[in-house]
Predict the structure.
Amino acid sequence: MSAKQILLVEDNEQIMQGNERLLKRRGYEVVTALTLSDARKAVGAQMPDLFVLDIMLPDGSGLDFMQELRQYSQTPVLLLTGLTTSEDIVRGLTAGGDDYLPKPYDFGVLLARVEALLRRAQQVPERIQKGRLCLDVTADVATLDGADLLLTQKEFVLLLIFVQNEKRFIHSEYLYEKAWKQPMAGDSQALKKTVYRLREKIEGSGWHIDWSRGEGYCFEKE
């Protein structure tokens, strides 16, 4: 199994370097970004397994970046920031953060929070029922009214992402990376064809997969 990738978004280079060394020693793959612009480029290349995100950055707010992220991904976010009031913490968590760690902090606490978020992200129920659709996650099998839909592995991965993100638009790049295990690199035809076949297989289920230019795909009721 490949190492979990963590994206550190932090404009204080000393803090960045300390956290990077700590996480690498624990076996994580670490990508760093000093600005939101750098963070967006990193996400465009590959979606990490976890964000450790500062809020006050030179080219904008980490909260705004996180809300952008939540439009197409549920990747866990640990907010690591000098904003320490109760109001700041509530604002960060309600904006979409999964955890909040004020500076200064203990390295052991940081590691424990990172490990807890990654464990939580891996927890997927064995069966997911979505109306007449049922997904057996352990067997990679989806059924409609008990009949096997005979999905390919990539079709099942896409359907699982869709049912876990109902009514959320998900960018094509993210879907391709999760199903094909590599960056899309501008070629979306394979994804389009796979989603087309998936649409046909779930026809009559009461659910459909919509597409919007610039936003991606969305799974919702008909």
DSSP finds eight helices and 13 strands in the chain. Residues 127-221 form a domain with the Arc Repressor Mutant, subunit A fold (CATH 1.10.10.10). The longest helix spans residues 107-122. Residues 79 and 100 are 5 Å apart (CA to CA).
